[in-house]
Amino acid sequence: MLSALAFAVIGYLLGSVSSAILICRLLGKDDPRTTGSGNPGATNVLRAHGRGAAAATLAGDVAKGLLPVLAAKLLGLSPLAVALAGLGAFLGHLYPVFFNFRGGKGVATYIGVLFGMSLWLGASFAAIWLATAAITRYSSLAALVASAASPVVALVSGQSLWIVIALAVMAVAIFSRHHENIARLRNGTESRIGGRKI
Protein backbone atom coordinates (compact mmCIF):
# COMPACT_ATOMS: atom_id res chain seq x y z
CA MET A 1 0.00 0.00 0.00
CA LEU A 2 2.81 2.42 0.83
CA SER A 3 4.45 1.82 -2.54
CA ALA A 4 1.12 2.40 -4.28
CA LEU A 5 0.63 5.72 -2.47
CA ALA A 6 4.22 6.72 -3.16
CA PHE A 7 3.75 6.13 -6.87
CA ALA A 8 0.49 8.07 -6.82
CA VAL A 9 2.43 11.05 -5.44
CA ILE A 10 5.33 10.56 -7.86
CA GLY A 11 2.90 10.33 -10.76
CA TYR A 12 1.07 13.44 -9.61
CA LEU A 13 4.25 15.51 -9.31
CA LEU A 14 5.47 14.39 -12.73
CA GLY A 15 2.05 15.05 -14.23
CA SER A 16 2.11 18.55 -12.74
CA VAL A 17 5.01 19.50 -15.00
CA SER A 18 3.18 21.35 -17.79
CA SER A 19 4.84 20.52 -21.10
CA ALA A 20 2.91 23.23 -22.94
CA ILE A 21 3.88 26.04 -20.58
CA LEU A 22 7.53 25.04 -20.25
CA ILE A 23 8.06 24.48 -23.97
CA CYS A 24 6.44 27.81 -24.85
CA ARG A 25 8.68 29.53 -22.31
CA LEU A 26 11.78 27.85 -23.72
CA LEU A 27 10.83 28.92 -27.23
CA GLY A 28 9.99 32.47 -26.15
CA LYS A 29 6.34 32.02 -27.08
CA ASP A 30 3.24 33.33 -25.35
CA ASP A 31 1.91 31.32 -22.43
CA PRO A 32 -0.74 28.96 -23.90
CA ARG A 33 -3.04 29.85 -21.03
CA THR A 34 -3.27 33.38 -22.42
CA THR A 35 -3.78 32.54 -26.10
CA GLY A 36 -6.44 30.74 -28.13
CA SER A 37 -8.63 28.51 -26.00
CA GLY A 38 -6.44 29.09 -22.95
CA ASN A 39 -5.87 25.35 -22.62
CA PRO A 40 -2.25 24.30 -21.92
CA GLY A 41 -2.30 21.39 -24.31
CA ALA A 42 -0.90 20.36 -27.67
CA THR A 43 -3.95 21.41 -29.72
CA ASN A 44 -3.93 24.97 -28.45
CA VAL A 45 -0.14 25.16 -28.82
CA LEU A 46 -0.51 23.98 -32.42
CA ARG A 47 -2.99 26.73 -33.22
CA ALA A 48 -0.98 29.42 -31.46
CA HIS A 49 2.64 28.45 -32.10
CA GLY A 50 2.88 25.82 -34.81
CA ARG A 51 3.67 22.17 -35.33
CA GLY A 52 7.11 22.02 -33.72
CA ALA A 53 5.98 23.39 -30.37
CA ALA A 54 2.84 21.26 -30.50
CA ALA A 55 4.77 18.06 -31.26
CA ALA A 56 7.11 18.70 -28.33
CA THR A 57 4.14 19.40 -26.07
CA LEU A 58 2.39 16.22 -27.15
CA ALA A 59 5.52 14.13 -26.57
CA GLY A 60 5.98 15.61 -23.10
CA ASP A 61 2.36 15.06 -22.11
CA VAL A 62 2.41 11.44 -23.30
CA ALA A 63 5.73 10.77 -21.57
CA LYS A 64 4.58 11.96 -18.18
CA GLY A 65 1.71 9.48 -18.29
CA LEU A 66 3.88 6.69 -19.62
CA LEU A 67 6.94 6.91 -17.37
CA PRO A 68 5.48 6.48 -13.85
CA VAL A 69 3.29 3.59 -15.03
CA LEU A 70 6.21 1.84 -16.71
CA ALA A 71 8.38 2.39 -13.63
CA ALA A 72 5.78 0.80 -11.35
CA LYS A 73 5.47 -2.17 -13.71
CA LEU A 74 9.23 -2.64 -14.10
CA LEU A 75 9.60 -2.65 -10.33
CA GLY A 76 7.04 -5.44 -10.15
CA LEU A 77 4.58 -3.44 -8.07
CA SER A 78 0.94 -4.36 -7.66
CA PRO A 79 -1.81 -3.49 -10.16
CA LEU A 80 -3.05 -0.99 -7.57
CA ALA A 81 0.32 0.80 -7.65
CA VAL A 82 0.32 0.81 -11.45
CA ALA A 83 -3.23 2.18 -11.52
CA LEU A 84 -2.45 4.91 -8.97
CA ALA A 85 0.75 5.89 -10.77
CA GLY A 86 -1.28 6.49 -13.92
CA LEU A 87 -4.15 8.19 -12.14
CA GLY A 88 -1.70 10.42 -10.25
CA ALA A 89 0.03 11.52 -13.45
CA PHE A 90 -3.30 12.20 -15.13
CA LEU A 91 -4.63 14.26 -12.22
CA GLY A 92 -1.34 16.14 -12.07
CA HIS A 93 -1.84 17.15 -15.70
CA LEU A 94 -5.39 18.32 -15.00
CA TYR A 95 -4.55 20.03 -11.69
CA PRO A 96 -0.82 20.86 -11.70
CA VAL A 97 0.48 21.92 -8.31
CA PHE A 98 3.29 23.90 -9.99
CA PHE A 99 0.93 25.96 -12.17
CA ASN A 100 -1.92 27.04 -9.89
CA PHE A 101 -3.87 23.80 -10.54
CA ARG A 102 -4.79 24.99 -14.03
CA GLY A 103 -4.02 22.18 -16.45
CA GLY A 104 -5.07 20.64 -19.72
CA LYS A 105 -7.79 18.27 -20.81
CA GLY A 106 -5.78 15.11 -20.21
CA VAL A 107 -6.09 13.13 -23.45
CA ALA A 108 -2.37 12.94 -24.29
CA THR A 109 -1.43 11.97 -20.75
CA TYR A 110 -4.22 9.38 -20.77
CA ILE A 111 -2.69 7.91 -23.94
CA GLY A 112 0.67 7.68 -22.19
CA VAL A 113 -0.93 5.91 -19.24
CA LEU A 114 -2.64 3.44 -21.57
CA PHE A 115 0.58 2.54 -23.40
CA GLY A 116 2.35 2.17 -20.05
CA MET A 117 -0.30 -0.23 -18.80
CA SER A 118 -0.51 -2.27 -21.99
CA LEU A 119 0.57 -1.91 -25.60
CA TRP A 120 -2.82 -3.36 -26.52
CA LEU A 121 -4.68 -0.67 -24.57
CA GLY A 122 -2.70 2.10 -26.22
CA ALA A 123 -3.06 0.63 -29.69
CA SER A 124 -6.80 0.14 -29.18
CA PHE A 125 -7.21 3.78 -28.21
CA ALA A 126 -5.30 4.86 -31.32
CA ALA A 127 -7.35 2.61 -33.59
CA ILE A 128 -10.67 3.80 -32.16
CA TRP A 129 -9.57 7.43 -32.37
CA LEU A 130 -8.49 7.06 -35.99
CA ALA A 131 -11.67 5.26 -37.01
CA THR A 132 -13.94 7.80 -35.31
CA ALA A 133 -11.98 10.75 -36.67
CA ALA A 134 -12.06 9.30 -40.20
CA ILE A 135 -15.82 8.86 -40.06
CA THR A 136 -16.85 12.07 -38.29
CA ARG A 137 -13.88 14.43 -38.88
CA TYR A 138 -14.19 15.57 -35.26
CA SER A 139 -10.97 15.28 -33.23
CA SER A 140 -12.77 15.98 -29.96
CA LEU A 141 -15.43 13.35 -30.59
CA ALA A 142 -12.77 10.81 -31.53
CA ALA A 143 -10.96 11.48 -28.24
CA LEU A 144 -14.16 11.12 -26.26
CA VAL A 145 -15.19 7.87 -27.93
CA ALA A 146 -11.72 6.35 -27.57
CA SER A 147 -11.45 7.46 -23.94
CA ALA A 148 -14.83 5.97 -23.07
CA ALA A 149 -13.97 2.71 -24.82
CA SER A 150 -10.65 2.20 -23.04
CA PRO A 151 -12.03 0.99 -19.67
CA VAL A 152 -14.25 -1.46 -21.56
CA VAL A 153 -11.28 -2.72 -23.58
CA ALA A 154 -9.31 -3.10 -20.35
CA LEU A 155 -12.13 -5.07 -18.75
CA VAL A 156 -12.69 -7.49 -21.63
CA SER A 157 -8.94 -8.01 -22.10
CA GLY A 158 -8.54 -9.19 -18.52
CA GLN A 159 -6.83 -6.21 -16.92
CA SER A 160 -6.94 -5.82 -13.14
CA LEU A 161 -10.08 -4.26 -11.72
CA TRP A 162 -7.88 -1.48 -10.29
CA ILE A 163 -6.75 -0.64 -13.82
CA VAL A 164 -10.32 -0.65 -15.11
CA ILE A 165 -11.50 1.63 -12.30
CA ALA A 166 -8.61 4.07 -12.78
CA LEU A 167 -9.25 4.28 -16.52
CA ALA A 168 -12.97 4.81 -15.92
CA VAL A 169 -12.25 7.68 -13.53
CA MET A 170 -9.92 9.26 -16.08
CA ALA A 171 -12.47 8.85 -18.87
CA VAL A 172 -15.13 10.62 -16.78
CA ALA A 173 -12.68 13.45 -16.09
CA ILE A 174 -11.91 13.77 -19.81
CA PHE A 175 -15.62 14.11 -20.57
CA SER A 176 -15.90 16.76 -17.87
CA ARG A 177 -12.96 18.69 -19.33
CA HIS A 178 -14.52 18.55 -22.79
CA HIS A 179 -17.90 19.98 -21.77
CA GLU A 180 -17.48 22.95 -24.11
CA ASN A 181 -16.60 20.65 -27.01
CA ILE A 182 -19.62 18.48 -26.22
CA ALA A 183 -21.87 21.55 -26.28
CA ARG A 184 -20.46 22.60 -29.66
CA LEU A 185 -20.89 19.06 -31.00
CA ARG A 186 -24.54 19.19 -29.97
CA ASN A 187 -25.25 22.51 -31.66
CA GLY A 188 -23.10 21.81 -34.74
CA THR A 189 -20.43 24.44 -34.21
CA GLU A 190 -17.48 22.23 -33.27
CA SER A 191 -14.51 22.54 -35.63
CA ARG A 192 -13.90 19.59 -37.91
CA ILE A 193 -10.48 18.24 -38.79
CA GLY A 194 -9.38 20.43 -41.67
CA GLY A 195 -10.87 23.59 -40.19
CA ARG A 196 -14.41 23.35 -41.49
CA LYS A 197 -17.44 23.90 -39.30
CA ILE A 198 -20.96 22.69 -39.89
Fold and architecture overview:
With 198 residues, the chain is mostly helical. It has one domain (2-187). 72% of the residues lie in helices and 0% in strands. It has helices spanning 2-15, 19-26, 42-49, 51-74, 79-94, 107-117, 119-136, 139-156, 161-177, 179-187. The longest helix has 24 residues, at 51-74. The protein is globular. The termini are far apart.
Secondary-structure element order, as H and E? Answer: HHHHHHHHHH
Q: How far is the N terminus from the C terminus?
A: 50 Å
Number of helices: 10
Task: Report the principal-axis shape.
Answer: globular
Give the strand content: under 5%
Q: How would you classify the quaternary structure?
A: single chain
Model regions low in confidence, pLDDT < 50 over at least 5 residues: none
Helix content: over 70%
- Total tally of structural domains: 1
Query: Largest sheet, if any?
Result: none
- Chain-averaged pLDDT: 91
User: What integer value in Å does the Rg equal?
Assistant: 16 Å
Structural class: mainly alpha
* Count of β-strands: 0
Please give the structural blueprint.
Layout: H1 2-15, H2 19-26, H3 42-49, H4 51-74, H5 79-94, H6 107-117, H7 119-136, H8 139-156, H9 161-177, H10 179-187
Helix pairs in contact: 1-4, 1-5, 2-4, 3-4, 4-5, 4-6, 5-6, 5-9, 6-7, 6-9, 7-8, 8-9
